[in-house]
Amino acid sequence: MSETWTFICSNEELLPGEMKTGFDEVTGAPIVVFNLDGELYALEDQCTHEEFELSSGELDADEGSIECILHGARFDVRDGRALCAPAYTAVPKFPVKREHGGIWSRDDRD
């Protein structure tokens, strides 16, 4: 588990309906942060179906979901739950915060 927050981007770089990626400075876990109407959500940037980066997929900001381009698995960006096959396991959700003009996240898994 990482106690160290990782800088993802400045507040101005992540507008509503957009996403930005980074890597946890301690664990190396890939992180994708989403802005849904000003609310921030962070998930591990990896599909649980076939370990492919979610950030290369399509974000549906109205639905609040991301679709993996590999096989079409969709996940709720607010809580990481799988919305359809072929994925059945949720994507880990990470904490995210705004601080010092930036957006920060970290891998808080044990």
TrEMBL record:
GO molecular function: 2 iron, 2 sulfur cluster binding; dioxygenase activity; metal ion binding
Domain Rieske, residue spans: 6-105
Keywords of this entry: 2Fe-2S, Dioxygenase, Iron, Iron-sulfur, Metal-binding, Oxidoreductase
InterPro entries: Rieske_2Fe-2S (IPR017941), Rieske_2Fe-2S_sf (IPR036922)
Species name: Stenotrophomonas terrae
Name of this chain's protein: Benzene 1,2-dioxygenase
Signal peptide limits: none
UniProt keyword annotation of Kinase present: no
Pfam families xref list: Rieske
Native organism taxonomy: Bacteria, Pseudomonadati, Pseudomonadota, Gammaproteobacteria, Lysobacterales
Keyword Ion transport assigned: no
